[in-house]
């Protein structure tokens, strides 16, 4: 089917849904809700299509004006300039519409679970893991998202061996899914007396939050252990067995939570984390099968891939997947300039997927 035929069909469907909703033709509340969502999802696409149609019509009219023998020379010259601008606008609008028609990741609109772990580099890696965790916390604040810690395993001097949080808001997973992978830091560690630059690393994993219908778990497949919450340096946070660890026996996937004083709340959070890890495991398996023939995988979420380097002496952040370097490390770590990296990664992924369709 040609692009124009697809666009015509989308506009027709949008108009049909609008008429049905106005006349209250939905058979039941659930059907009405589905139609309303489809109508709302189509609105920005149809608006862009109509903008494209108007630009095309303007281009045709201007070209006709140029071709008219009765048009004087000055007006023809102005029309020629306008044709150049309109052709560029039509081309850009067509690109935007094609991007909007790309298959969407069903998880893009979901909330996310962020996991940051210290990698190679000892205490310096743990300190960097803590900084990354707080970078995403600040980024969430910039985006207007809710950031809630689920599990933090601290070291004695402020580092994190592991830190997990849920991030709630609009299109959280769509914005953060490219962050999964190995983040490398180059700097003089606080613990280094000789002033030599060291290289350390931390691993980031971003999981789409699972919904109840995504994962079916047999309670018989779970082992639930309780233990006492631990603080930094191994000191007890409280004296009750409020921390919870849940193991999914068939897969071996484990989730734990100790942030709440209530065992019931910790169990609920650990269960949510477990469901998301199982959902992510299944998504990753399917993505690997679909991606077997893909040449590029910007958003693969490969946990072992070194994706970015933060070089503090040079003040730069380099994303190795798209060869982009920003000399604004302070703004990135503050969460203020992370969008520049995310936008570039999103655009690169969209370009790669468009190329596959051509």
Give a nutshell description of this structure.
The chain is α+β, with helices and mostly antiparallel strands and 358 residues long. Helix content is 47%, strand content 20%.
Biggest sheet, in brief? 8 strands, mixed
Binned, the helix content reads: 40-55%
Shape: flat
Beta content comes to 15-25%
Layout of strands and helices, then pairs:
Layout: H1 3-23, H2 29-67, H3 73-101, E1 112-118, H4 122-143, E2 146-154, E3 160-168, H5 172-176, E4 181-187, E5 198-208, E6 222-227, E7 243-248, E8 253-257, H6 263-290, E9 306-311, E10 316-319, E11 324-326, H7 329-333, H8 338-357
Parallel strand pairs: 4-9
Antiparallel strand pairs: 1-3, 1-5, 2-3, 4-5, 6-7, 7-8, 9-10, 10-11
Helix pairs in contact: 1-2, 2-3
Structure description:
The protein is of the alpha+beta class. 47% of the residues lie in helices and 20% in strands. The chain contains 8 helices and 11 strands. Strands 2-3-1-5-4-9-10-11 form an 8-stranded mixed beta sheet. A 3-stranded antiparallel beta sheet has the order 6-7-8. A hairpin with a 4-residue loop joins strand 9 and strand 10. Helix 1 crosses helix 2 and helix 2 (29-67) runs antiparallel to helix 3. The protein is flat, with a radius of gyration of 26 Å. The chain starts with a helix and ends with a helix.
């Amino acid at each position: 089917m040609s692009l124009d035929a697809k666009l015509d069909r989308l506009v027709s469907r949008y108009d049909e849904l609008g008429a049905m909703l106005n006349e209250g033709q939905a058979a039941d509340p659930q059907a009405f809700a589905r139609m309303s969502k489809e109508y709302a999802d189509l609105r920005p696409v149809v608006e862009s299509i109509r903008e494209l149609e108007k630009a095309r019509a303007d281009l045709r009219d201007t070209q006709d004006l140029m071709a008219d023998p009765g048009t004087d020379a000055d007006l023809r010259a102005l029309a020629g300039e306008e044709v150049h601008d309109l052709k560029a606008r039509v081309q850009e609008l067509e690109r935007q519409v094609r991007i909007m028609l790309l298959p969407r990741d069903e998880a893009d609109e979901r909330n996310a679970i962020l996991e940051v772990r210290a990698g190679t580099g000892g205490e310096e890696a743990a300190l960097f893991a803590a900084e990354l965790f707080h970078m995403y916390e600040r980024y969430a604040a910039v985006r207007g998202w809710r950031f809630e810690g689920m599990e933090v395993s601290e070291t004695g001097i402020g580092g994190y061996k592991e830190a997990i949080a849920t991030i709630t808001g609009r299109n959280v997973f769509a914005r953060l899914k490219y962050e999964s992978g190995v983040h490398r830091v180059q700097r003089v560690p606080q613990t280094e007396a000789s002033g030599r630059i060291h290289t350390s690393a931390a691993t980031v994993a971003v999981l789409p939050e699972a919904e109840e219908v995504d994962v079916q778990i047999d309670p018989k497949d779970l082992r639930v252990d309780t233990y006492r919450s631990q603080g930094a340096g191994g000191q007890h946070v409280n004296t009750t067995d409020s921390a919870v660890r849940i193991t999914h026996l068939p897969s071996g996937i484990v989730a734990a939570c100790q942030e709440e004083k209530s065992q019931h709340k910790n169990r609920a959070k650990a269960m949510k984390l477990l469901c998301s890890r199982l959902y992510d495991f299944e998504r990753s398996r399917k993505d690997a099968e679909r991606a077997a023939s893909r040449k590029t995988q910007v958003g693969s979420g490969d946990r072992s891939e070194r994706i970015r380097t933060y070089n503090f002496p040079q003040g730069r952040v380099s994303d190795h997947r798209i060869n982009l370097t920003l000399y604004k490390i302070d703004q990135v770590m503050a969460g203020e300039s992370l969008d520049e990296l995310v936008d570039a990664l999103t655009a690169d992924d969209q370009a790669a997927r468009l190329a596959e369709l051509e």
